[in-house]
Write a structure and sequence with these properties.
Layout (H helix, E strand, L loop, with lengths): L6 H8 L4 H12 L31 H19 L11 H12 L5 H10 L10 H9 L7 E5 L3 H13 L2 E5 L8 H4 L31 H14 L6 E2 L3 E8 L4 E7 L5 E6 L1 E4 L21 E4 L12 E5 L3 H13 L2 E5 L6 E2 L10 H9 L3 H13 L22 H18 L6 H4 L11 E2 L3 H5 L4 E4 L3 E4 L3 E4 L4 E3 L2 E4 L13 E3 L6 H5 L17 E3 L13 H19 L6 E4 L1 H15 L28 H9 L6 E4 L6
Parallel strand pairs: 1-2, 1-7, 2-3, 4-18, 7-19, 8-17, 9-10, 9-17, 10-13, 11-12
Antiparallel strand pairs: 4-5, 5-6, 14-15, 15-16, 20-21
Helix pairs in contact: 1-3, 1-11, 2-3, 2-4, 2-12, 4-5, 7-17, 11-12, 17-19
Bound molecules: 3-acetylpyridine adenine dinucleotide.
Amino acid sequence: MVIPGDDATLKQALEDVNTPNLLLVLATITGDDHWLSEEYAPAPIEAPEGSLFPDDSGGYPDEQRARIRDAAALIIGEVRDGKRSTGNKPDLARFHRMLRFSTAEDIELETAEMLMEETRFKDRDTQWLPELQSAVRDGSAADCHIVIVGAGMSGLGTAAKLKQAGISFTILEKNDAVGGTWYENRYPDCGVDTPNHFYSYSFHRNPAWSGYFSKRDELYAYFEQCADEFGVRDHIQLNCNVTEMRFDESDMSWQVFFKDGSGNPRTLRANAVVSAVGQLNRPAVPDIPGLETFQGRMWHSARWQNEDLSGKRVGVIGTGCSCVQLLPKTAAEAGHTFVFQRTPHWVAPARDYYKPVESGLIWALKHIPYYAEFHRARMILVFGDRSWPAVVTDPDWQDQSVSVNEANHAMREVLTEFIKEGLGSKQSYVPHCVPNFPVWGKRLIVDNGWYETLARDDVSLISDGIDHITETGIVTKDGQHHALDILILATGFQSNQLLSPMSVKGLGGQDLAAFWGDAANAFKGTTVPGFPNLYCLYGPNTNIVHGGSIIYQIECQIHYVMQCLTVIAGGSKRALDVRTEVNEAYNDEVQALSAKLAWGHPSVESWYKNQAGQVVNNSPFSLQKFWAVTHDLDLSDYRLLGPGAND
Ligand code: N01
């Protein structure tokens, strides 16, 4: 790493960095544990009220902070000037000690192991890469071809790894661009709810995020850039809609049927198929009587139309995350906005949601040795599993009707106060805005001015329930007609029928949709018995509610899939079929755990659940646990089909 600039630039950057992290940098460069001694012990991390960002500055007196920075300027300056080496990256034991020191928390060793990989202090790819590369080198993988369906974050991430290994692959993407959800969603203020220094590939960090919570255009640009920098552009076929996949037992391969950009039917043969289609890409159009008769302009939030809203009467159906994000800007532009709410959601205060990344931090992420690694680790610790204890039901908790444990209830009270405060003069809305399900029953929505917007004079919250839609507006159950020029459907996605509408036929022609019904399930959220060599990324029970980045989950799955591919890439027409009893035992555990979590609570009705109330979409695990669950392939979980079959 070449460190540019002069002392003044370095000192300026150090103003913006996190002091406990800076101490870890110093300890790593110098190898001197004095920087991790009691003298520098930071104060515990605290969450100031109303802030998404905990105060993790270390709480040092100004004078001590200045001394640490001066020392850092000197030491890093010496590295820059070639007078000192960058030292050695920490091994697990030292990294573990560093994390415990810098957070003043009792971090588990397994968490440190996970973070070694997330920071790439340890390269987890060594678990599968040498084997695949040697199969490529000796020619045994020459006939192996993988088809990836979808060029969003899962597809691009998989493609990066296949490219690295030298395995042949094709990505079929239905859209005319990569990026998936970040390409499709363009509604006003669309963005992430997890800081991007965490919400990005571990193997492709971006030091230049402009905000902690980036907006759609920047995210889309990141995935576009990934497609180029991973060198996978030539493998992507855009405008290709996969309609059917059939497993061919004669040579243990998949036939993938799709329509190309001209609508012509085409077929590809693949040794394995990676479904990277996501869970949230098919807009759900509500089944409300009269919807089709509406004569004004109407669109779904995920199919945004840039129309002039000024002076218009705009209706929005739905109050989930998409609506919360799009409402402030929509209401600011429209003449009057009517929000039709069926169920209120919990919304978390986020004073610093629009905080730009400090220029010094961007510089440090680019140029200070190890800073980006320690920054990512800290972001994951702070925005990952911190809420987990508050989502697990305490069987002894008294008030099980609206909360699952004491911490969960305390959060309920904080958020209820936040609602009252935000609604200002419209206190009559309060009873309509307090959900009757536990906090984290649904993913907490990060506030971008939701209650303040509902409190505007030109915004009306309508909670009476929709009876029907007319040519000119919406009639609510109380008989009132609300005249509208524009109707926005922020009504979510068809999420329970995973992989739909593709027809997927496995062993013996078995149909995946029929096999699943409305209770999709998979081993580790990834493999399905009877559908060998089919890998579902962001598959059943992998979505996260309590916090964290879905890219993290997907990377865990990709790591697992790449290990599976070491078995089948050797060109000998082999297939891995997860054992039925293994999958059933896994999913019995998934359901038993889910029932004890906030989102499994009987009061929660959501897109996570099927008709029977089973949680289909969400992971029942903390991020840490999902990492452990997916980390190592155990071949005894699978039947090996083809040459060398073991069953
Ligand atoms: O969709 P949703 P979304 N009549 O399903 C209502 C991710 N995401 O697009 O709650 C009346 O959450 C429905 O009511 P109810 C995130 O994972 C992330 O907002 O079912 N109302 C609900 O209010 C999120 O979970 C980000 O009673 C009807 C709303 O429509 C997921 O996408 C940003 C109705 C749908 O809410 C989906 O979010 C955006 C009907 N017939 C999205 N049908 C970030 O990262 C549905 N509704 C920040």
